[in-house]
Amino acid sequence: MWLENLQLQNFRNYEAVDIDFTPGVNIFLGSNAQGKTNLLEAIYALALTRSHRTTNDKDLIGWEGKTAKVSGVVERRLGKLPLEIDFTTKGKKARMNHLDQAKLANYVGQMNVILFAPEDLALIKGAPALRRNFIDREFSQMSPKYLYVANQYRAILKQRNQYLKQLQNKKSRDLLYLEVLTEQLSGYATELIIRRLVLVERLARAAKPIHAAITQELEQLDIKYISQLSEEERQDQETIKSALLARYIKLQEREIFMGTTLLGPHRDDLQFLVNDHDVAEFGSQGQQRTAALALKLAEIDLMKEETDEYPILLLDDVLSELDTVRQTHLLMAMQDKVQTFLTTPSLSDVARQLIKEPKIFKVQAGTLNVVEEDGGQHG
């Protein structure tokens, strides 16, 4: 799939934009704080109905405005599909093929994107919440069923936590409702864990040869799904749910005392092993960056495998964070495979040599101009 056209109205520092892209490499070139990342954010928001930089949609609305609009046309295997997101001070509305979508979950997955930004290099050694958000965000694009299960789990988890807090202040406890919530939570937790285990295994399988190539076969990467349940307790659906229910019974008094759910996939994690050593704990910064790069490149292949279409790749000023070897592997991996949007203050020699016929946009103070091959520009 590839994004043919993007239109913005009052989005961040862009008052009005209407631009066409190439299915190959599109480069947003310009100094810092001119609006390059805002363009990637708009593409990301068009795909996922939210920003990757803020949880407050109001931040996306331009100065003194009340609404922001992002729209575009994505070319997919089955044809063109118009997409549109309106952000207002009261919420957001999604349209697909010019029809309002009552549920955002029905919209997500129509255009798939993979974002690689400098902060993703901290994914390996960062907090567990970063990795949980990563797998939920990426797997939800690949599978509508995963998105549904994850949303249901979060909703029941929120209810259960609220009730646990209520029980803290009650002298006489009615535990029947807690049992109902625990049963529901265990069901969705079981399905979510199973889906994560399958997809993490496929992601690890895709990342291994990529990582080996970058390290010239000197290092081997493995990715493990880390759960509070033992491997014996997560053999299949029945054993996972039984183990969860048994653990919740043991944890009940402690959970009531603390007012929160202490067990479940919302507390799970990923572990990255290089030559059987935890790279987050024992790896060098170079090894951590190589693992992060292999992970992102593996996503491309996994998303193609799951959806039968390649995603759109968003690279936000990431080339400057990678050495020549890693830049080369990234640029070679994306060539002739995925539509790519790349932001950078300047093009490296490696990028100039490897990127074939890019479409280059000069970005300055919220304006875009196409850079001609002879160095000229036009609006």
UniProtKB/TrEMBL annotation:
Keyword presence, DNA damage: yes
PANTHER family: DNA REPLICATION AND REPAIR PROTEIN RECF
Pfam family, one: SMC_N
InterPro entries given in the database record: DNA-binding_RecF, DNA-binding_RecF_CS, P-loop_NTPase, RecF/RecN/SMC_N, RecF_2
Species classification: Bacteria, Bacillati, Bacillota, Bacilli, Lactobacillales
A single GO BP: SOS response
Biological function: The RecF protein is involved in DNA metabolism; it is required for DNA replication and normal SOS inducibility. RecF binds preferentially to single-stranded, linear DNA. It also seems to bind ATP.
This protein's GO CC annotations: cytoplasm
Organism: Weissella muntiaci
Keywords: ATP-binding, Cytoplasm, DNA damage, DNA repair, DNA replication, DNA-binding, Nucleotide-binding, SOS response
Residue sites binding ATP per the record: G30, S31, N32, A33, Q34, G35, K36, T37
Domain annotation RecF/RecN/SMC N-terminal: ranges: 3-344
GO molecular function annotation: ATP binding; single-stranded DNA binding
Entry similarity comment: Belongs to the RecF family.
Alphabetical list of NCBIfam families matching this protein: recf
Protein name: DNA replication and repair protein RecF
UniProt superkingdom: Bacteria
Subcellular location: Cytoplasm
